[in-house]
């Protein structure tokens, strides 16, 4: 039976190879027996812990040999592989569909009290209190597992096993997996929202648009700046794809984990659990698997150019750092979540010296599974490379909201490949009876539902005229990059509600908007730093600044001449005033007494 958690889990059924811990107490039979399976078919994937131990250790196809690769730890002569993949989605999928961990916990919880007393053969139980040497040595000691705490949990070992038997760990892992998936989508959706808010602006400092003066004064710098604006983002994109294809835990394993998750779901669907009590769980995981392997990669296709456009710092090196950090951080989410589940759930060790971390992340991979994994890897990477490169070039000229159509198009393309390529490689065996059609229809329905939600989310930007004038049509066909977006910094689901409102109105017979606002008003232009003058006016002024300077010099000379003339006229007026004052004095002295001179105007 051995010293494993299940007390001998091989031999075609749990406990079939012998008794429980210590080999006594209850006649050598576990309380529950989990029926293990034979080795998977060449196009299947199964967790190593639910595969029959005798077949796993002594396979008919030959012995296991170490491969020396990061992805696989052992290979058999018939092509089967033993793979370690610490992924929260793959682990929580099989842990919630099968009852392996539940039976494991119940058996150990039942057996714990028997190990607290002396065994039938006179040997001490594993949990029996024993005297210990004061001095001790490096190899001996005693463990009181039943009375001691489990990891950081303030409970006894038996209570921890009871929690494992109630599937607390399994469904906690499912909750963490779903929250991790929502986090990935939220981050990628935030990038798309930022891209929409930037339209039609371009924030890259090394923009492809330059003034004619620069082209005339510095032609070499002008050519280099335009070349840098396109070539450097493409180089960054190529390096990102190379990192994704590279043999690293956050590279190939992340891409191939999509295939591993989907193939494992299909493999479990053809087993007893998927055909009976776990049928609804199977459908739930089909939805999660489709979102993880189809919708998220479709978001990533647009997320790469979105980062380059809205997250640019103007320096190619800093842009490369931003892109690499994001696309090495998002693939590592599943590994981080897997580790936190094992930490919080105290699954790191099940005996003092035997790690469980790697055991529960080991999978037996059929000989033909790598063919499907590699084929889908090329599907993901070639599509992402080609479409993202096209978007990087297009966003240097114009930033249109119609680029969001890439997400639903990519989702349909990936789903078509998932429905067709495995069938072309392995034939009808990829569609197990009873559950195969359900999985296919559920996957297609999930893609249709998710793309419909995406259209509702961004419908005002995918269909230019529906939400006009609140969302003007020139956002889809921007005539200039100097326009000011009317969307604002934060808009949440306001435009989603507006899209649904307009659709409801059209359904009820409302007229199609007459003014789609394809032509922007003067108020839509982005203000510059010169007193709110539109940017296109500032450009016109900049082109005529030399002529305006010459005209200003001529006007200055004319003003100097006019100033001299005014001074001369003022001097003449002063002389006339003094002459008038003298004349008045002479007239006052010559007049007879009592005579008053009356004139039609004041004497002065």
Description:
The protein is mostly helical. Helices cover about 55% and strands about 5% of the residues. It is built from 18 helices and eight strands. The protein has helices at about 55, 90-95, 100-110, 155-165, 170-200, 210-215, 220-245, 250-270, 270-275, 280-310, 315-330, 335-345, 370-395, 405-425, 435-460, 495-505, 535-545, 545-590, and strands at about 45, 70-75, 80-85, 150, 155, 350, 355, 360-365. A four-stranded antiparallel β-sheet has the order 1-8-3-2. The longest helix is centred in the last third of the chain and has 46 residues, at about 545-590.
Keywords:
604 residues; mainly alpha; four-stranded antiparallel β-sheet; two-stranded antiparallel sheet; 18 helices; 8 strands; disordered N terminus
Fold topology:
Blueprint: E1 45-47, H1 53-57, E2 72-75, E3 81-84, H2 88-97, H3 100-111, E4 149-150, E5 153-156, H4 157-165, H5 168-198, H6 212-217, H7 219-245, H8 252-269, H9 272-275, H10 279-310, H11 316-329, H12 333-344, E6 349-351, E7 354-355, E8 362-365, H13 369-397, H14 406-426, H15 436-462, H16 494-507, H17 535-543, H18 545-590
Antiparallel strand pairs: 1-8, 2-3, 3-8, 4-5, 6-7
Helix pairs in contact: 2-5, 2-8, 2-10, 3-4, 5-10, 5-12, 7-11, 7-13, 8-10, 8-13, 10-13, 10-14, 10-15, 13-14, 14-15, 15-16
* Distance between the first and last residues' Cα: 135 Å
User: Main β-sheet: number of strands, strand sense, barrel status?
Assistant: 4 strands, antiparallel
* Helical residues, percent: 40-55%
Widest sheet, order of strands: 1-8-3-2
Strand-pairing-aware structural class: mainly alpha
What is the ordering of alpha helices and beta strands?
Answer: EHEEHHEEHHHHHHHHHEEEHHHHHH
Mean pLDDT comes to 74
Give the number of DSSP strands.
Answer: 8
Low-confidence stretches: 1-28, 136-147, 203-213, 349-355, 529-544, 594-604
What does the radius of gyration come to?
40 Å
The share of residues in extended strands comes to under 5%
Shape: elongated
Total helical segments: 18
């Amino acid at each position: 039976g051995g010293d494993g958690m299940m007390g001998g889990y091989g031999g075609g059924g749990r406990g079939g190879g012998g008794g429980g811990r210590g080999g006594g107490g209850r006649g050598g039979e576990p309380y529950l027996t989990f029926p293990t399976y034979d080795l998977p078919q060449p196009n299947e994937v199964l967790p190593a812990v639910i595969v029959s131990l005798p077949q796993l250790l002594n396979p008919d196809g030959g012995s296991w040999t170490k491969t020396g690769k990061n992805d696989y730890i052992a290979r058999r002569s018939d092509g089967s592989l033993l793979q370690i993949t610490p992924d929260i989605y793959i682990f929580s999928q099989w842990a919630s569909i099968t009852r392996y961990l539940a039976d494991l916990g119940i058996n150990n919880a039942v057996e714990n009290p028997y190990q607290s007393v002396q065994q039938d053969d006179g040997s001490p139980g594993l949990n029996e209190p024993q005297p210990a040497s004061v001095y001790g040595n490096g190899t001996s000691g005693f463990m009181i597992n039943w009375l001691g705490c489990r990891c950081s949990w303030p409970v006894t070992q038996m209570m921890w096993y009871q929690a494992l038997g109630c599937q607390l760990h399994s469904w906690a892992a499912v909750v963490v997996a779903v929250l991790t998936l929502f986090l990935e989508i939220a981050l990628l959706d935030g990038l798309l929202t930022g891209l929409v808010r930037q339209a039609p602006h371009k924030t890259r400092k090394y923009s492809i648009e330059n003034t004619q003066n620069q082209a005339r004064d510095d032609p070499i710098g002008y050519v280099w700046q335009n070349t840098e604006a396109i070539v450097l983002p493409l180089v960054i994109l190529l390096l990102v794809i190379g990192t994704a294809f590279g043999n690293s835990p956050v590279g190939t394993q992340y891409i191939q984990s999509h295939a591993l998750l989907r193939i494992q779901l299909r493999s479990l669907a053809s087993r007893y659990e998927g055909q009976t009590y776990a049928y609804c769980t199977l459908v739930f995981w089909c939805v999660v698997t489709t979102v993880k392997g189809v919708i998220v990669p479709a978001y990533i296709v647009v997320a790469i150019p979105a980062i380059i456009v809205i997250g640019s710092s103007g320096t190619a090196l800093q842009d490369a750092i931003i892109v690499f950090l994001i696309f090495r951080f998002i693939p590592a989410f599943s590994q981080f979540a897997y580790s936190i589940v094992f930490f919080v759930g105290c699954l790191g060790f099940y005996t003092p010296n035997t790690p469980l971390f790697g055991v529960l992340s080991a999978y037996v991979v059929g000989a033909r599974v790598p063919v499907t994994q590699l084929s889908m890897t090329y599907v993901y990477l070639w599509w992402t490379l080609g479409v993202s490169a096209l978007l990087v070039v297009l966003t240097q000229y114009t930033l249109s909201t119609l680029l969001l159509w890439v997400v639903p198009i990519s989702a349909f393309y990936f789903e078509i490949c998932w429905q067709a390529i495995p069938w072309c490689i392995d034939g009808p065996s990829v569609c197990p009876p009873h559950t195969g059609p359900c999985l296919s229809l559920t996957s297609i329905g999930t893609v249709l539902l998710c793309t419909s939600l995406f259209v509702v989310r961004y419908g005002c930007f995918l269909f230019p005229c529906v939400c006009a004038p609140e969302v003007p049509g020139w956002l889809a066909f921007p005539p200039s990059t100097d326009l000011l977006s009317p969307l604002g910094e934060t808009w949440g689901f306001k435009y989603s509600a507006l899209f649904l409102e307009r659709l409801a109105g059209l359904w009820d017979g409302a007229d199609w908007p007459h003014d789609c606002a394809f032509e922007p008003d003067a108020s839509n232009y982005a203000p510059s730093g010169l007193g709110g003058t539109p940017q296109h006016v500032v450009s016109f002024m900049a082109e005529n600044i030399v002529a305006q300077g010459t005209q200003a010099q001529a006007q200055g000379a004319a003003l100097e001449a006019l100033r001299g003339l005014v001074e001369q006229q003022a001097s003449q007026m002063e002389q006339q005033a003094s002459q008038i004052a003298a004349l008045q004095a002479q007239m006052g002295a010559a007049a007879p007494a009592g005579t008053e001179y009356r004139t039609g105007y004041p004497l002065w």
